[in-house]
Amino acid sequence: MTSSTIAITRPAHAPSMTLLAWGGLALAGGLLLPWFRTGRDLASFVAGTTGIELLGSEPAVAAALVCALLSAILGMLKLPLYRRGQLALVTAAAGCTLVVLALVGHGQPMGPAPVVVFLGFLSLVGVGLSLSGYLRADAFIAASIVWVAVFVVLFILYPLWAVLQASVVVKGRLTLEVFGTVFQSPNFLMINNPYTPRDEIRIAVTFGAVVAAVSGLVAAVLARKLRPVVVWAAGSGIAGLLISALYLGFGAVRNSVLLALVVGVASTGLGFLFALLAERSQLPTRRLLGPISILPIITPPFVLGLAMVYLFGRQGFVTHSVLGMSTTVFSGLLGLSIAQILAYTPIAFLLLQGVVRAMDVALEEASETLGASNWYTLRTVIWPLARPGIANAFLLTVIESLADFGNPVVIGGGKPYLATEVFYAIIGRYNPNEAAVFGVVLLSMTLTIFLIQRYWVGERFYVTVTGRPTHATPRKLPRALDYAVTGVFLVWVLLIVLLYGSIFVGSVTKLWGFDYTFTLAHVKGLSPSGWYVFRTTASLSLIAALPSTALGFLIGYLVTRYSFPGRRALEFSSMLSFAVPGTVMGIGYILAFNQGTLLLTGTELIIIMAFVFRNMPVAIRSGVAAIHQIDRSLEECSTMLRAGSLTTLRRVVAPLVQAALLSGLVFAFVRAMTAVSQVIFLVTPRVNLSTALILSYVEHGSMGRAAALSSVLVVFMAVVIMIMYSVTTRIDARAGRGAQAKP
Amino acid sequence: MAVPATQLKQVLHQAASPVRFERVTKRFGTVMAVDDVTLKVPAGNLVTLLGPSGCGKTTALRMIAGLEWPTEGRVYIGDEDVTPLPAANRSVTMVFQAYALFPHLTVFENIAYGLRVMRRPHEEIRHRVGEAMSLVGLPGLERRAPAQLSGGQQQRVALARALVMQPKVLLFDEPLSNLDAKLRKRVRADIRMLQQDLGITSIYVTHDQSEALAISDIVVVMNQGRIEQIGTPTDLYRRPASRFVADFIGEANLLPAVVEDGTVRVGSYRFPYRQPGVATGAATLMVRPESVQVGVGGEGLPGRVQTAFFMGTYADYLIETEAGEVSVADPRSVDGIYPMGTEVRLLFSPTALYLLPPGA
Amino acid sequence: MKRFLLAGLVFAVAGLGVVQAGPAPGRVTVLCVPDLAWCNEIKAQFPRATGITLDFLRMSAGEALTRLRAERANPIFDVWFGGTGDPQWVASEEGLTEFFRPRNWEELRPELREVVAGKYIPLYAGILGWALNPRLLREKNLPEPKTWKDLADPRYRGLVSYPNPTTSGTGYTMLATIVQVYGEREAFELLKRMHPNVAEYTRAGTAPGVLAGRGEVAIGVTFNHESVVQILRGFPITYGSARDGTGQEIGGVSLVKGAPNRANGIAFIEWSLTPEAQRLASEAGESYQIPSNTRTPVSRLSPRFQDFNVIKYDFVRFGSAEVRSRLLDRWLKEVFPLPK
After folding, report:
1. What sign results for the dihedral spanned by CA atoms C255, C256, C258, C264?
2. I want to staple B91 with a disulfide (CB 3.0 to 4.6 A). Which of A56, A463, B168, B297 is the partner?
3. Is C232 in contact with A700 (CB distance < 8 Å)?
4. Which of residues 237-276 of C touch A (CB under 8 A)?
5. Does the CB of B165 have a partner CB in chain A at under 8 Å?
């Protein structure tokens, strides 16, 4: 028991254990571990490349280790702490540079030593920033910021840079040639086909003019003013021109854009109707919406496409066996649209459910008390309020559709799409530069939409899902509308049941379309390679889930709670993965990590990294949301009670976001399990992934096996998600007994 | 609140340190939150930072806590310049506005939190937490969750959690704003008693002037990042240094007046009044509503009743005069009030008048 | 909190388990293009014969070429095994693979050795043809096609599929074959007329057979030995080839230049040319080409050269990058984008 005050203010000259520890770690790692590998294998070290052995021959290595030693010594020096921080900043920055120089100079794949040394120096930079007072945060936070920034640069920005570079640099020469060739290729876009008798451009122009004239006329009759006539005529004329040109045109741009427009409109529309249903319906069917909205998360992206073939192909169960038709209209744009609409409606639904829920019922009640009918209220109150949210959902589904790879591969009908051309250019035409150009085009489209969504729509669209019960009971839908929308929804449910059912039935059916006898052959055929691949997928996804969640939450915490230079840039670039289509990131990884000191292709590590950085943005989002729920003064209080930020994170923040962390972990895992587009470029002999395997089954006609493995995946993930829900519900229930985190 | 004599009390008493601001400025971007503030808080005193929201009082408090850092100037606790020190190293604790009780920890664990962070032995933690709990009068609630406590109890847990760390300075950030009016009065009395008993340096932020007047040794009135006036509660009420303080502390009629030799004239009403250090010429006279007598006929500032409300213990008037509107709380009118439109005369009782310094 | 740490530990340990990587000796890494079953079989049998562990990654021939190009500086694979000859030809010309005379060179069929000599080592030969779905043809009341020209018959509208020649070696073989049979001008006229009939230009060469098998199309142009596989899988199809002359492929095996395990690679290639290894293709590997070793028994199921009108395919001319890219470019511009 102390009897005097515990004045913890440390003397300014006390030894700094952090400097000592990180400096020592960098030094020890650099001296004892090998610096280089012979090849891809992470364990294939070059003999004689430990730091001790390199000291004589590699001046950069030696200098870097001296920096490490100096940093460690700084910990013990009798200088004011802030001065030592400044010095540590200098030695650590020099150390980082020297490590990079040593690696680049040598050119061989790096071993564990540079990783340890470099990370040690990064931490020292953080410690230095903190001690010197340049960054108002403790060493842990400062070091985290530095680490995260470097990781984001290395695994998000650098691969994208590699794609950009490959699109304009061919054999070391800067050129726009590849862009030229690609832009002229019918695979990319062809509006006027010289080998057809008709002149597509003239038809499009004529159509545009007719549309302009008609809508101008209508506007003139209705408005009797000049301005609306001009606006309507010009707007619809241009729209008509573009749409007809797209319709008549050919190529990846045409297909992708047309598809994205159709899917965006349909998914958003259906999503909004379902959101109304979920929040406002009086019928019990609305309870089905919750479970159904998770389906796309647990479904590998192309499984619906596969099921479409089962149901609506020429030998499809519905088209052929039931309706007796013989048609292939469902393979190609139409079938693909349906598959994507089924996949993305739930996403739009989840976004719009928040919008509908956040709508202030009082406004509607006000409208009603003013004598407006339900329909009138819907049109004049609900619709304008929901409009920004709807724009938001539309743009996001457009991005999803543009970036989708799995469905076009399975039921694209052999037509070019931007996301698939990236892949085919590499694996069909063996041309990484062409792939890069397609990638750049696709990326610029998704990025533009992403920016519009974020800065234009995003600003008008604030939905805070607080989970607080609203006191007013929501208005019910008009009865007729309720039944009509429920009808649409039931058709949708039926379709979903049929599609998933066909996958399950297909996996135990001899030969779909011809021989519906029951068999376990496909399921048995999964062993050994199918099961082995499934296990690999599961373990890699599991390994990747933890860092992606931890990193995501950490970034979420840093950007919400601290201000530091480059905060917005960090936030933006770590969210980039939302806008970067997987195939683009995939070639980025291939181009960036295939040679030199960063050689990582062919290892499990690169797949893990791909998973981590692909799924991190989701974790950031849920991390930010969860942390916003915590009153900031809890952390400040912990700080004032002498806890460092790591302790605060561990003892205050983590327990309070436990449920969010757990579900973040599970979703990262599930998303990794179902990922295709990025990792399809990265699979190797020893490391194959389920989704890639399913695709190759489909390609080689083993539809039964593909269905079997898909079923296994879907069931497995449904079980995982259900377990997670029950656990988080329990955590929430327990937390519910505790106080509200926010007053 | 029963306060047993304990070791903790002694320790706290010894620990109490003065706090000093030296030309402290804090800018957020272009916004000047605290503007060149110099301030001394003597050890063992309770000093209140009072002002409207956005006046910089909370920022000032957070700079003492180490949750914000001054753009310019230094902060001292005792003799030590704590400006570069992080919050964790300052031996300062705080009672937060919403108490900031950790919802996932029990009362005991909440209070023990800081000791656990410091890795004190279990036995010591048990002992010290017990001491702190009895000090604030919370025995037997160790195992409760914060959500199971009443507002007043939560407040005490927050206080105990702050005291158990044996701080040199205790900070309060609007600690009563989450309580209802009745409870607020009791809790603030408890806080004041405990503070005086412990003799701990306390800095208290509030926007509620009555709370500030009731609880403080010294009140610092802040406005737009600057200190308007520092003084005891009576000083501030009787002798405000500026129109802002006069207006902010209680209700005040600020009337244009002319100071002549030994007399003051407001409109046509001239009465004898002397205030040392006030030069002749134009001035502003502060008249508190309760020091105005309303009568009919005779001497006084002539006026007409604009509104009149019967308030039980007094009558509330708004009276239009040649010097402007005058608000009156007349306790003698309980038997009957002058109706609207009555021509009246206002008399000012000289003891409750104050001439504001020119230029204030 | 402890639970999180524990979970972290578990993850880390699991991670180490997966990221373990064996040492290089006693290992060979193969880019495997043929059917997965065949790849699995060599993975199982080669170690038994030699004690060397074999890893493979299955990918299409085009993918294989891209992969080797990308990894030129630092190859991961030792051997490129199987698949259409064209990309192996290209790889050889680009110096991605190196030719060597295997021990058992003299045992290989001379007609195969001659046409590809010096570029890659012949592994098998296959005959171009089409998979037919008789049920669908009967349903539509249509006869089986006999010649390439029949595929342009408007009665087959939407019932034909052939691989996209820009992404599939099979597709290019078809294109080159028609050009060799009819001359370039007439060939392209034919392909344009065929276009409305084509339901889908598939990316992979085997896919049209799959489509025919699933009954999506009635006629799927693919190699006949691929059709055999689909038939054995239970798809109700038959196969045939154009009587006006059909093409062929010579599948090969190549040693990757700069292979990390070169000696093991050579050992694998020489083993893969032995009758014992080549038998695996039909016996366990679901692959029914004509094996290149004369001593390897030809499977009863394999389509044989004497039964079809196989043209004297000019590998040198149509393997050259210049002719190839001209034909592909022309197809891409004149045929592919036509409206249907």
Report:
1. negative
2. B168
3. no
4. 260
5. yes
For A502, the 3-state DSSP assignment is helix
pLDDT digits (tens, 9 = 90+) for A410-439: 888 888 999 999 988 887 777 889 999 999
Chain A residues whose beta carbon lies within 8 Å of the beta carbon of residue B14: 4-5
Cα angle, residue A490 at apex, residues A489 and A493 outer, rounded to 5°:
90
pLDDT at residue B50 above 90?
Answer: yes
Is the distance from CB of C204 to CB of C34 less than 8 angstroms?
Answer: no
Which ipTM was obtained for this model?
0.85
The predicted-structure confidence for A302-345, as pLDDT tens digits, reads as follows: 888 888 888 888 888 888 888 888 777 777 888 899 999 998 99
Looking at per-residue pLDDT, the higher value among B312 and B226 belongs to B226
Tokens of C246: 């059909």
- The answer to whether C331 and A186 are in contact (CB under 8 A) is no
Q: How confident is the model at residue A603 (pLDDT cuts 50, 70, 90)?
A: confident
Q: Does A654 touch chain B (CB under 8 A)?
A: no
Beta-carbon count within 10 A of B58 CB: 22
Cα–chain-centroid distance for residue A114?
30
Say if pTM beats, i.e. exceeds, 0.90.
no
Chain A residues with beta carbon closer than 8 angstroms to that of C332: 185-187
Q: What is the mean pLDDT of residues A634-655?
A: 91
Q: List chains adjacent to chain A, taking adjacency as at least 3 C-beta pairs closer than 8 Å.
A: B, C
Which of A5, A7, A644 has the CB atom closest to B88's CB atom?
A644
* Burial bucket for residue B242 (CB in 10 Å: 0-12, 13-18, 19+): middle
Question: Domains of chain C (ranges plus CATH)?
Answer: 27-126+249-303 (3.40.190.10), 127-247+321-334 (3.40.190.10)
Closest in C1, C11, C260 to A654, CB measured? C1
pLDDT band at A138 (very low <50, low <70, confident <90, very high): confident
Phi/psi region, residue B64 (left: phi>0; alpha: psi -120 to 50; beta: rest), is alpha
Nearest-angstrom CA–CA distance, A90 and A96: 10
In chain A, what percentage of residues exceed pLDDT 70?
94
Q: At A223, phi and psi to the nearest 5?
A: -100, -30
Q: What angle do CA A712, A714, A715 make, to 5 degrees?
A: 65
